[in-house]
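Protocol step 4 of 6: structure prediction from sequence.
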Amino acid sequence: MYSSKLVKRKKHKKIALIITTLSSAIATALIIVSFLGNLVGSFTVKLYTSDVKLAMSASGDFANDTTTLIRVGDLPSFQLNENNQLLKHEEIDNPKTSYLDNGSIGQDGEEPSTIYYFKQTFFVKNVGTVPASYDFSISITDNQRPNNVTYGYDDLLRVRLYTNDGNSSEHDYEVYAKYIRTGAAINYDDEGNPIYEEIVSYDPEDPDYMRRAVPFKNESTIMSDKVPSFSVGKVTRYTLLCWLDGEDSNANGPVPKGGSIKLEVNINAKETGK
């Protein structure tokens, strides 16, 4: 059991988020997130393979919808959100749903003016004749801090990655967040030991109540994972969900101005044993 300081809910503050693409010969999947910018862009996932055959699909229908590139159109600005507003896992981890379905604000028939989160579901399948392996990672490639506050967007960023078998009804996931760096925001366990990991939820009705987020691997890498044996015909379903967390202690201050953060998702495939 953990004890925590009283956390007041923050009012939603409008923070512009722009996701654009950047060409790179060595990146296998690239997401660029630029906050408070004036241009619009897209979310891109690229799949590069070497001597094995992996395929990617946004729908899971590999007979009719196989691609090496998934690109989402222009994104509007973001507002702060929190974990316990994002608990409908069967809707989030679902290729038939969009971040615009119930996470946006706008008039009927018009483009939404703001969104509360972004999510993208995609499937990876081994369509070759030999087992494969691949490395999966989410990295921060550029982090320009706002010019009017002492924190960066990486301090507010929460990344939830669902990883499940392609046809599974399960919705297993991990939530990633940067280590707490503000002393006043540190929680303590029942023995008085400091907890430097961000707490996923402070709501006792949330199954993730007082669960610790997995810390970013380092300043530039959010997470990395090795899939050592991806058998022929196997399908894995991924859903990437990201939001700016209104429960973060930094969200009490002024609205950030300027700055940007760039995220890159890499899938590097090779034959098992190589």
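Step 5 (inspection) to follow. The radius of gyration is 19 Å.
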